[in-house]
Amino acid sequence: MNSINFYRFGNFLYRKRLYQLSKFVSGFIFLIFNSYIPSSATIGRGSRFAYGGIGVVIHSKAVIGDRVIIGQGVTIGRQLDPAGVPIIGNDVYISAGARLLGDIAVGNNVIVGANAVVVKDVPDNSIVAGVPAKIIRKIDQPIYDLLKNIY
Sign of dihedral through CA atoms 14, 61, 52, 110? Predict the structure, then answer.
């Protein structure tokens, strides 16, 4: 059982303008997984949550690309400025406990290290880690070649 399946159903209801039912699905996700994954967020195809999505918090206006893996305890949201929320590209792996905050863009083919706090844009083909997150390595191959046993 993974919260992404419930999110997809809630997002379907949200797109059909059945807002109360989509809020009910979001509440169910919160109750079962202790996660806030609103139906209004945009999460691309092939994306999934590690360990079912336990403890994940996603802003309602966040945009997450295709084939993104989000670890447990991850927060994707805004900073004090209410204007911007993160936009995450395709083929991104967000490790457990990471925080992606504010009006930032995370490029394609990126790995975000465990417990990293990302508050600045991340370019394509990078590995970032630390508090605040910094580029620790550039990569020239797909991240799924580096991450064994992900799929």
Answer: positive
Residue 136: count other Cβ atoms within 10 Å of its Cβ: 13
Residue 98 token pair: 């990471």
* Residue from 83, 119, 128, 90 nearest 107 by CA: 90
**Which pLDDT belongs to residue 147?**
79
Strands 126-129 and 134-138: antiparallel
For residues 50 and 48, what is the distance between their CA atoms, to the nearest angstrom? 7
pLDDT of residue 129: 96
Question: What distance in Å separates the CA atoms of residue 39 and residue 36, rounded to the nearest whole number?
Answer: 10
β-pair type (117-118, 105-106) = unpaired
Predicted confidence (pLDDT) at residue 143 exceeds the cutoff of 90: no
